[in-house]
Design goal:
By secondary structure, the protein is an alpha+beta fold. It is built from three helices and six strands. It comes from Mesorhizobium alhagi CCNWXJ12-2.
């Protein structure tokens, strides 16, 4: 059986590379997003999934875990440094934090924050 860390890092990789269907299946009904000025606040699963554009996902993803806390059996928050390249070629680096809650035995994203690195 995979550890919580392995499970959540696998989910994180899919959030970077997967499509809107993956988001629909793995984001909670509502999620607090702190991404940029236009994406800061509570968003619905449907609205978050709609932000995923096919054809411009990420590749060459590198994740370096910075920390993981599990305040309860059904709540975990992880932080990591991510570096990736858009399929169109643009490079991106950020410090990322994601909070998960366990719903019916599955981890669901309930919080996501990114701080771009220079």
């Amino acid at each position: 059986m995979a550890s919580v860390e392995q499970e959540l890092l696998a989910l994180e990789r899919q959030f970077w590379t997967g499509g809107s269907k993956f988001y629909q299946e793995n984001v909670d009904e509502s999620c607090l997003i702190v991404f940029n000025r236009d994406m800061a606040g509570v968003m619905s699963n449907k609205d978050i999934a709609a932000t995923v554009k096919n054809g411009n996902r990420w590749k060459d993803l590198e994740i370096k875990l910075k920390g993981l806390v599990t305040p309860s059996e059904d709540t975990t928050i992880l932080s990591y440094e991510a570096r990736a390249t858009r399929e169109s070629g643009g490079r991106y680096a950020a410090l990322v934090s994601t909070g998960y809650a366990k719903r019916d035995g599955r981890w669901k994203m309930v919080f996501h924050q990114q701080t771009p690195l220079a």
